[in-house]
Design goal:
Elements lengths: L1 H7 L3 H13 L2 H17 L4 H15 L2 H23 L1 H11 L4 H13 L4 E2 L11 E3 L2 E3 L9 H15 L5 H7 L7 H10 L9 H6 L1 H17 L4 H18 L5 H6 L12
Helix pairs in contact: 3-4, 5-6, 6-7, 9-12, 12-13
Length: about 270
């Protein structure tokens, strides 16, 4: 394009039209561009032979120059990603999962890739997971923001609360400390389906079916804490009894239901 500007007097639009014409290689348009180029070069004092040969050289370069300019960075990128995947597989897959966390189908592809290369991906955990996918002890920890109906803003609020006031001691403690306007019933159910509360010893089916009662218990617990009527420990124990016991003793989901709940983790399978 710069050659066309300096030699043939093309403006930027005319030079870009020449670039497009050479890319498409339509004979009629190429001939029109040749005439325009040689006339413009002649007007600037260049011979017709010189301008015609120069046009041919530009056209020849256009045949491979565009491909070459793209193939070099693509080759470099392929080398870099292959190196990272070979030497840092967990970190590489973790970064890929974070990049595609909004795309359920692409997330499933990378989760499958992780299994194929022997990298374990854990379920989300409200006391361990970060906002995005992270690596700990060569395992990928599922990011909270990748769980359906949770998202980036809510995930960050969960992490901020955990950092400021410590780990969550129970599901009710978790729900009482997280604003229900940020994490609604569907978000709690998705966390239950995905295993976000597994470390509390409940079955996922039990937590899922007791979600409404657990939310109500958490509201009562929050009121009691705010009113200073009881200590946090006694209030948690008392309000946890009925709903938590129901969640703990509930049976596990059938295999077909477990397979159907994969969508709550954007392709991640569940195991309870």
């Amino acid at each position: 394009m710069q050659v066309a500007e300096k030699i043939a007097g093309f403006n930027l639009q005319e030079a870009d039209n020449l670039r497009v014409a050479m890319g498409k290689k339509i004979p009629k348009i190429m001939e029109e561009q040749r005439i325009k180029f040689t006339n413009g070069a002649s007007a600037k004092g260049y011979s017709e032979i010189f301008s015609s040969e120069l046009f041919d050289q530009i056209a020849y370069f256009a045949g491979y120059g565009f491909n070459k300019s793209h193939s070099v960075p693509y080759a470099l990128l392929a080398y870099q990603t292959a190196y990272l995947k070979a030497n840092f597989p967990a970190e590489y897959i973790s970064a890929c999962l974070t990049a595609v966390k909004r795309d359920k189908d692409r997330t499933a592809i990378f989760l499958s890739e992780a299994r194929d290369i022997g990298v374990q991906v854990t379920t989300p955990d409200i006391n361990l997971s970060s906002e995005d996918f992270t690596v700990s002890e060569n395992k990928i920890i599922f990011g909270l923001s990748a769980v359906r109906n949770v998202g980036d803003v809510t995930a960050q609020k969960i992490i901020n609360e955990r950092n400021e006031n410590g780990d969550f001691s129970s599901i009710e403690d978790f729900l009482s400390r997280i604003d229900s306007r940020s994490l609604n019933k569907r978000g709690v159910e998705a966390l239950a389906q995905g295993g976000g509360f597994d470390n509390f010893g409940f079955t996922r089916k039990g937590v899922y079916e007791a979600t409404v009662d657990l939310i109500e218990d958490a509201k009562d617990l929050k009121k009691e804490k705010l009113n200073n009527q009881e200590s946090g420990t006694s209030a948690t124990m008392r309000s946890s009894t009925a709903s938590s016991n129901a969640a703990r003793t509930a049976a596990m989901w059938s295999a077909s239901v477990r397979l159907g709940s994969r969508s709550s983790l954007r392709g991640k399978s569940t195991s309870q």
